[in-house]
């Protein structure tokens, strides 16, 4: 089965492709099918993911999978949340993972409550009008480090310290991270939902 991934993020594609391999699902990035990015006007992960999935399905005629994920920092009332990918741009930096990490560390200087959650909301639709989208949410709670550690992963992985492992996500082997990350957890739920309802 071919599923269009409503993202052009190579890191997400690689992670999700590995996780969905047991179902025999082939993920194809929407950009590889000539589809641009959907608008993301909403303030919740689930609304944005649903919008992206419907958009990708509408423009390709394929079932679609969308992920909206982000960092929710307790000290900032859950922000940056849905604005995670563009977090650094509000501080004058060009959009990039490295600049997001830099900006967050700068904003966290002197902040003692370093608790944060990484959240991944996956939404899958069979068609643009699917009345029963599959929705899976994965959440991992950790702490923001004071400096980047490790070279695996992407995004905020180098500064997201996971107490149960005593390491940042970027210090973990890829297969361990994938099994225990926010995206790993939402993907495991999504696989179960797809098996139950689609296959």
Structural class category = alpha/beta
Mean pLDDT: 94
Instruction: Give the C-level CATH assignment.
Output: Alpha Beta
The largest sheet, given as strand count, sense and whether it forms a barrel, is:
7 strands, mixed
Q: Which fold name is given in CATH as the topology? A: Maf protein
Keywords: Hydrolase, Magnesium, Metal-binding, Nucleotide metabolism, Nucleotide-binding
Enzyme class: hydrolase
Binding site for Mg(2+): 39, 68
Organism: Acidovorax temperans
Essential attributes:
199 residues, alpha/beta, Maf protein, seven-stranded mixed sheet, 23% strand, globular
Task: Characterize this entry briefly.
The protein has a single domain, classed as Maf protein (Alpha-Beta Complex), CATH 3.90.950. With 199 residues, it is of the alpha/beta class.
Q: What does it look like?
A:
With 199 residues, this protein is of the alpha/beta class. It has helices at 10-20, 45-60, 97-107, 174-180, 182-197, and strands at 2-5, 26-29, 64-73, 115-125, 134-144, 160-162, 167-168. The protein has one domain (2-197): Maf protein (Alpha-Beta Complex), CATH 3.90.950.10. The protein is built from five helices and seven strands, in the order E-H-E-H-E-H-E-E-E-E-H-H. A seven-stranded mixed β-sheet has the order 2-1-3-4-5-6-7. Helix 1 crosses helix 5 and helix 4 (174-180) crosses helix 5 (182-197). The longest helix is centred in the first third of the chain and has 16 residues, at 45-60. The model has no long low-confidence stretch (mean pLDDT 94).
